[in-house]
Amino acid sequence: MGRAFAIGVALNSVFVLAEAGVGLWTGSLALLADAGHNLSDVLSLLLAWGAVVLARRAPTARRTYGLRKATILASLANAVLLLVAVGAISAEAVRRFSEPAPVATNLVMITAALGVLINGATAMLFMRGQEDLNVRGAYLHMAADAGVSAAVVVGALLMGLTGLLWIDPVLSLIIVAVILIGTWDLLRHSVDLALDAVPHGIDPAAVREWLAGQPGVTGVHDLHIWAMSTTENAMTAHVTRADHDGTDAFLHAACETLAERFNIGHATLQVETGDADACRLAPAGAV
Description:
Alpha-Beta Plaits; 8% strand; 8 helices; mainly alpha
């Protein structure tokens, strides 16, 4: 999978430089907006690739979880930078309505068509292995961008046929809207993960209900679920079992099921045999 990421990053990096250069040369704001969108692809691919690499780093005495959390920080920085780029593109698009500029439509169409091929080919690299959320995200992102590049081709064709220069800034704002939708979702999820919120896709009530329903369990409290990285989740909880037999069978079985059923691969359970109310962390508001 590392090879797929390397090829995808290389192809899209070269295309971003070419597309931005042609966009500046031809005066096409839509092409520049698409170049910004494709730059987000490169950052997303690097983020996903980095998550795969960092997940393999061994923990140290100081960083007991390794560098997994760096993927979340990178995701947050990526979202903020994209929002800044969206603002700059939007401001220029609004200005173009009052000050329209000619566009070399033939060159724009050729460049954008190349983008359809590159984005489509990159998406095909990630068609396999989509059980990994990072890989699936990379596939969906690249497939969507092939569609955006196709829209630029259509826009340039319409400008060439009609001579209507306002099509360029309108198309730019549409591309900006597409970027904004994806970026806002990325920002929201990144902030949630950075603040140790329960990762999307995990229902804490269902986890609590499942734990409480295990044999011998009379109570569950101090339940916390958070993300160690963009792909790995952790959990801690206190479980009351008055008839705990002192063996580790319950712990091993519970952790195995939490990993398989809820995608919580790093679970730590503290078994208590006394009154749950005696634990200072039993109140719902305690942390």
